[in-house]
Design goal:
This protein has one domain: Neuraminidase (6 Propeller), CATH 2.120.10.30. Strands 1-2-26-25-24 form a five-stranded antiparallel β-sheet, with no helix packed on it. The radius of gyration is 20 Å and the shape is globular. The protein has two helices and 26 strands. The chain is mainly beta and 398 residues long.
Length: 398
């Protein structure tokens, strides 16, 4: 069976002289730098963009193991989930050696493990946060979402919000975010069983919508069900356009065993709608299903996504950014100012420089933060991987 979720390992890089690599690394260390993906590259690099603006990228944190989700709890504190089951703390730019939590019931194999992380809308007062992770059952792996209280040096008061979500080594979801309506949204995978994405009785291959306490909102599109949308294969990116309020998702297309490779998507997701999997994929259309806003073939394996709200990237505010795994790049989508359902242009950034990219979020300091995923068994870790990158604009155009 082929690699699932479009996350196949990147093509092999040309071999380099070991002596040349060693010399480059020694020179960088002597100069006080850490390495990016390419050993010859300094920790801080600049990249021109199509608009004429210049982006500067530096290593913010190194030494992580498959970071999946990240969220700032304050201007100086960042929480990061690592797929093996750890929740890590970055305080004032320094990674604490001791995790704030290690979840003992996490099942981590293939693409599963500890995944989504979201703060409650009233986090500053309640200190509540939500984690999504795979766990074992006699019937096989499943995903649960649990709520915890952030006690500063530990997570306490665990409460399961929902569980029994279909999972497998591949296509386990699961991105968490609170929407502008204060509801918790979760993307779920089809667990390599495509037909469940069309089954409204199954929680697999869906977007779920829940109240913060885990109850089902009365205005959900299917009464008594947490299902918000269906027909998804494996969505891993989720955010809302701050201008239009529309929900955008990134989704992995088929990988060979369940359809021709490619067909990765960016979708505008709305209540009660069917996004087609496995009835249609790639550029196919079918009455009653919603076609993607963007489709990518060959596969790029899109993951975490955020609309840019960053003061330090003024030329890109309002643009939709999403990280890619197999594509090893950050993709920027600019929407038509006159029509938020239409793409004006796209741009690919940092291609092949930092390897596999898993998540992208806005920072409270006005920068954009991007997490790599080079230690997930499909990447080629460089010294310091996995890392979180900090992106700012050094030469704005407007």
């Amino acid at each position: 069976m082929g690699r699932a979720g479009g996350e196949a390992a990147a093509p092999e890089e040309p071999l380099r002289s070991r002596a040349a690599v060693a010399a480059a690394v020694a020179a960088l260390v002597a100069g006080g730098f850490t390495c990016a993906r390419e050993p010859e590259s300094p920790a801080s690099r600049t990249f021109p963009t199509r608009s004429g603006a210049t982006l500067q990228v530096e290593a913010f944190v190194t030494g992580l193991e498959v970071p999946w989700s990240m969220v700032f709890t304050s201007k100086s504190r960042l929480l990061v989930t690592e797929r093996p089951g750890r929740v890590r703390v970055v305080e004032n730019g320094k990674l604490s050696p001791t995790p704030i939590a290690v979840l003992s019931d996490v099942e981590a194999s293939g693409e599963s493990g500890l995944m989504g992380l979201a703060l409650a809308p009233d986090y500053e007062a309640s200190r509540l946060l939500y984690l999504a992770y795979a766990y074992d059952t006699p019937q096989g792996p499943r995903v649960r979402i649990a709520r915890f209280r952030d006690a500063g040096s530990s997570l306490t008061d665990r409460r399961v919000i929902i569980e029994g979500i279909p999972a497998a080594r591949y296509h386990a979801g699961c991105r968490l975010r609170f929407g502008p309506d204060g509801k918790l949204y979760a993307t779920t995978g089809d667990a390599t069983t495509g037909p469940i994405a069309q089954d409204l009785k199954s929680l697999g291959g869906k977007t779920l919508r829940l109240n913060p306490d885990g109850s089902i909102p009365a205005d959900n599109p299917f009464p008594g069900s947490p299902v918000f949308s269906y027909g998804h294969r494996n969505s891993q990116g989720l955010d809302w356009d701050p201008k239009s309020g529309l929900q955008f998702q990134t989704e992995h297309g088929p990988s060979g065993f369940d359809g021709p490779g490619g067909g990765d998507e960016v979708n505008i997701v709305e209540a009660g709608k069917n996004y087609g999997w496995p009835l249609v994929h790639h550029r196919e259309t079918k009455e009653g299903t919603v076609p993607p806003l963007l489709e990518y073939t060959p596969a790029v394996a899109p993951s975490g996504a955020s609309f840019c709200r960053c003061e330090l990237l003024p030329s890109f505010r309002g643009d939709f950014f999403f990280a890619t795994l197999r594509g090893e790049r950050l993709i920027r989508v600019r929407l038509d100012p006159a029509n938020p359902r239409k793409v004006a242009e796209t741009e690919e950034l940092f291609t092949g420089v930092y390897g596999r990219l898993r998540d992208v979020v806005n920072g409270p300091d006005g920068a954009l933060y991007v997490a790599t995923s080079n230690r997930d068994g499909r990447g080629k870790p460089a010294p310091g991987d996995d890392r979180i990158l900090r992106v700012v604009e050094t030469r704005p155009v407007h």
